[in-house]
Design goal:
The chain is mainly α. It has twelve helices and five strands. The protein has a domain at 3-120: Arc Repressor Mutant, subunit A (Orthogonal Bundle). The strands form two sheets. A three-stranded antiparallel beta sheet has the order 1-4-3. Helix 3 packs across helix 6 (106-119), helix 3 (34-48) packs parallel to helix 7 (124-134) and helix 7 (124-134) crosses helix 9.
Length: 191
């Protein structure tokens, strides 16, 4: 038997959890916090324009109990472990990831890597705000959107300066014209 079959990794929720933790981000890190795992997989499904995992729009908006339960199962099986506040693959998890990587489509792996790279180095507030704006339907029942929207200017500036959103998106999210937005950025921020 293969590790994929042994651990039910052919299930999208389990397979994506193992894969996202196996991929290195821009800083060559594989570990991720739970919020970043949830949002990276949600972003990946947005990019693929296909939902294979059930997500809820309550509380943090765009999170999945299915992912949480499967992460706990993978931890119990010894494929994933929690180190501090981050999750990492164990040696057995790395072997399973290798099997999955050989079977996964290149286009899907590129999208999952992109999603992880876009989100993994953002702060908690930045990742939540980015995803709320990307998927407006997740704002409706959120317990966090109102708080973050009050910090909209700061968050948009940070996302723009980190290269996560372009000038057009930044000005649309702030309801400003491009010149006003660019003038608001200090020369120190632009370096």
């Amino acid at each position: 038997m293969t590790l994929i079959l042994d651990y039910g990794l052919d299930s999208p929720a389990r397979g994506l959890l193992i894969l996202v933790l196996s991929l290195q981000d821009k800083l060559k890190k594989t570990e991720m916090g739970i919020l970043h795992i949830q949002k990276a997989i949600r972003y990946f499904e947005y990019l693929k324009q296909q939902e294979t995992i059930s997500f809820s729009n309550f509380k943090y908006g765009g999170v999945s109990y299915e992912l949480q339960e499967n992460l706990e199962t993978l931890e119990e099986c010894g494929l994933v472990e929690k180190v501090g506040t981050k999750y990492v693959l164990t040696d057995e998890g790395k072997k399973a990831a290798q099997e999955l990587l050989e079977k996964y489509e290149e286009d899907s792996l590129q999208k999952l890597t992109f999603a992880k790279n876009q989100l993994n180095d953002l702060t908690h507030d930045e990742v939540l705000f980015f995803m709320y704006k990307l998927l407006p339907e997740t704002q409706k029942y959120s317990t966090e959107f109102e708080r973050l929207d009050q910090k909209r200017e700061t968050l948009v500036r940070k996302l723009f300066l980190k290269g996560r959103i372009n000038l057009t998106t930044a000005t649309r999210w702030l309801e400003l014209d491009e010149k006003s937005f660019l003038d608001s950025l200090s020369s120190r921020e632009l370096k």
